Amino acid sequence: MTQMTQDQMKTQVGQAALRYVQPGQIVGVGTGSTVNKFIAALAGMPEPVAGAVSSSDASSQLLRAAGIPVLDCNRAGELAVYIDGADEIDGRGCMIKGGGAALTREKIVAAQARRFICIADQSKRVQVLGAFALPVEVIPMAFERIRRQFAAMNGQAALRMKEGRPLVTDNGQHILDVRGLRIDDPLAFETEVNQWPGVVTVGVFARQRAHVCLLGTPAGVETLRFD
Ligand code: 5RP
Questions:
Q1: Catalytic position from the list 106, 137, 144, 163
Q2: How far is the CA of 96 from the centre of ligand 1 (A)?
Q3: Most CB atoms within 10 A, among 39, 144, 191, 197?
Q4: Which three-class secondary structure state does DSSP give residue 68?
Q5: Is 163 one of the catalytic residues?
Q6: Cβ–ligand 1 contact at 21 (below 6 Å)
Q7: Considering only CA atoms, which of 178, 171, 173 is closest in space to residue 146?
Q8: Which region holds residue 72: left if phi is over 0, alpha if psi is between -120 and 50, else beta?
Q9: Does the reported pTM lie above 0.85?
Q10: Strand spans (E) along 36-167
Q11: Is residue 33 in contact with ligand 1, taking CB distance under 6 Å?
Q12: Which residue segments constitute the domains of the chain, with CATH numbers given?
């Protein structure tokens, strides 16, 4: 038997997420390589969705290219579901997100949805959050002090770079990636760091944790429920 690749597992969970989507609905759409598979699956629905609220310019482009209208978040009202990937997910559905630098809009759209359906391959499942460098979107003038605040909790924060310059997010801000953290209490951690002046969004999703995770494994899609 040939081994299933990570890419194939992402395709499987992207397709499996259609179980949570109804024709005619407005769906919240995340960002990343797994979500790209979901967008491809959405595009193939025989009866289409009415539109999507998107969490990034990259996903909006793909959605439009697939013929799916991208709607203004402020006009869309409450969403039934938000579907997105994760960099890490723990046993309670808490996640680290932001590997694709879209964490702020991801948290905004997730907060507008009744259910968060996480789609991820099995490499994302962890016992404790923190092995993946934690993304934090920050106002540029504050990053040096925020870096020192993380150092005081044994975190090593580095500005994310792109083509030799600090990466600029869709919101015009920067990303700090923080290594060396062990996040035993995601809710308390998110609550604290979110209050530091200059932090736009911390990439711990505990308030907006997943209700369900569709986890891609070599044996097929496993459904983890957290609600
Ligand atoms: C983007 C994200 C993504 O959901 C996360 O990085 C997972 O991406 P991928 O599906 O490519 O592994 O948070 O900001």
A1: 106
A2: 9
A3: 39
A4: coil
A5: no
A6: no
A7: 178
A8: beta
A9: yes
A10: 51-54, 79-84, 88-89, 95-96, 113-121, 134-138, 156-159, 161-162, 165-166
A11: yes
A12: 6-125+207-225 (3.40.50.1360), 134-201 (3.30.70.260)
